């Protein structure tokens, strides 16, 4: 019993600061940090710069990396405007299979957005298909 408590405490400490996302891949993403967010629900404030940093292990070698971000609001999938598609501007390219990479992305959140809750799917796509996929439970507020 005590063993489990110690283990649980250890896991909790290790996970501190990391954002808990849903994996829509097969464990390629090992760590996710979102500015000002911890736990599993991220509140994003309008008119601010939002930063994400994700560590992942490449499961393919690739020259190019493409970014795809889709928000699901009330069951409707909407593309997120203003997202850059060239992932190589945010990480080291080309990518070598089996190596670990850190993807750093920053976006300024427009003030004109409505307040919404969304499940945001972020995918990195390489020459041979999906490289990494994660889903974040988020909310945009003032
Ligand atoms: C890489 O990982 C993604 C996400 O899990 C998966 O869809 C894809 O098939 C994998 N690709 C290879 C080449 O293993």
TrEMBL record:
SUPFAM superfamilies the UniProt entry points to: E set domains (SSF81296)
Look up keyword Nucleus and say if it applies: no
Q: Which GO terms describe its cellular component?
A: extracellular region
Which SMART domains does this entry report, sorted A to Z?
ML (SM00737)
Q: Where is the signal peptide?
A: 1-16
Does this UniProt record's set of keywords contain Secreted? yes
What are the alphabetically sorted keywords of the record?
Secreted, Signal
Q: GO: which molecular function terms?
A: sterol binding
* Short name of any one Pfam family annotated for the protein: E1_DerP2_DerF2
**What are the residue boundaries of the MD-2-related lipid-recognition domain, all occurrences included?**
21-138
Task: Please name the InterPro entries in this protein's record.
Answer: Ig_E-set, ML_dom, NPC2-like
- Gene Ontology BP terms: sterol transport
Subcellular location, record wording: Secreted
Name the protein family: Belongs to the NPC2 family.
According to UniProt, the name of this protein is: Group 2 allergen Ale o 2
